Amino acid sequence: MIISVASGKGGTGKTTVATNMALALGEKVELLDCDVEEPNAHLFLKPQITRTEKVETPIPLIDLEKCTACRKCSDICRFNAIAVVGKKVLVFPELCHSCGGCMVVCPEKAIVETGRELGTISYGHRNGIRFINGRLRVGEAMSPPLIRKVRAAADPERVTIIDAPPGTSCPVIAAMNGADFILMVTEPTPFGLHDLRLAVGAVRVLGIPCGLVVNRSDIGDQKVFAYAESEGLPILMTIPFDRRIAEIYSRGKAIVEEMPEWKERFVDLYRKIEALATSRSGASQCVK
Ligand code: SF4
Ligand code: SF4
Questions:
Q1: How far apart are CA 130 and CA 252, in angstroms?
Q2: Which ligand 2 atom is at minimum distance from the Cα of 78?
Q3: What are the residue ranges of CATH 3.40.50.300 in the chain?
Q4: Interval 183-203: pLDDT, tens
Q5: Residue 49 pairs with which residues in a beta bridge?
């Protein structure tokens, strides 16, 4: 079971939901922090990190001795990451998507692979919960390859909870694609509704069952609830605005550990997800 916890908008409580569900379920789960531009799940889970490794992506390196400046490499590159200027071939590593096309078409075998550092992946654990996070190198613009590497490290024997990046662009698609269920965390405000609509649109393209958690559910207005009803999106949990919860969050603590009555609510959230992910009605959610 792979559950991707996403939100159209940042700051809705996505990481709070992902970490608390992981802590409530205990040792059968793993938490993958795929919000690689700003990973913060470790602040709440507090895992013991046992290993950190660098992650690279392949980019072309030109052997100018062999190159005949035929331009076949620059013609095939859809990302303008390689250009032939006179007799020279210039590579722009930041634009390269590592597709390998230029290497395949080079008639002189003048292109070999070298690596560009994307960031790091750290591995750890807490109370039997497996934890992995990706951290994008400062200045690196392309996060999807690193997100895919974090996901590739998942253990299929465990329930995988993914803390996805916010938004609706390529990074969040990389964190949601192939999941069994997408849990969208939103808040009942005009911004929350606006970004929820965009996120639901993206999830529907993927055709994955989904449901909502409404955080700070007693502030704002009722439009998110009306939208969920009109779209047939199940609301699986509401978290009221509570000063104690805000204080726990601000101290970097977990709700289920500071307010034990919440543990069963997060376990119940998982049970609902499990039922929807495997039922026919659940499979029809977000597939309009
Ligand atoms: S395809 Fe190969 S030979 Fe042609 S310009 Fe590119 S690197 Fe040089
Ligand atoms: S590997 Fe792909 S993206 Fe990168 S330079 Fe070659 S053709 Fe362009």
A1: 19
A2: 8
A3: 2-55+119-284
A4: 999 999 999 899 999 999 889
A5: 124
In whole angstroms, what is the distance from residue 256 CA to residue 62 CA? Answer: 54
Nearest bound ligand to CA 95? 2
281 lines ligand 1 (CB under 6 A): no
Q: Which fold has domain 2-55+119-284?
A: Rossmann fold (3.40.50)
Mean per-residue pLDDT pooled into runs of 10, the chain (288 residues): 88 92 95 96 96 95 96 97 94 93 97 95 96 95 92 96 91 94 94 91 90 92 93 95 92 94 96 88 52
| CA 114 to ligand 2 center in whole angstroms | 12
Looking at the chain, the domain(s) classified CATH 3.30.70.20 span 64-109
Q: Is there an atom of ligand 2 within 6 Å of 97 CB?
A: yes
Looking at the CA of residue 108, tell me the nearest atom of ligand 1: 3
For ligand 1, the distance from its centroid to the CA atom of residue 74, given in whole angstroms, is: 8
Phi-psi region of 216 (alpha: psi -120 to 50; beta: other; left: phi over 0): left
State the Cα–Cα distance between residues 156 and 178, nearest whole angstrom. 13
| CATH 3.30.70.20 matches 64-109 | yes
Query: pTM of the full predicted structure?
Result: 0.88
82 Cβ below 6 A of ligand 2: yes
Q: What is the pLDDT of residues 56-88, one digit of tens each?
A: 999 999 999 999 999 999 999 999 999 999 989
Q: Give the ligand 2 atom nearest the CA of 76.
A: 7
Ligand 2 center from residue 97 Cα (angstroms): 6
3-state secondary structure of 6: strand
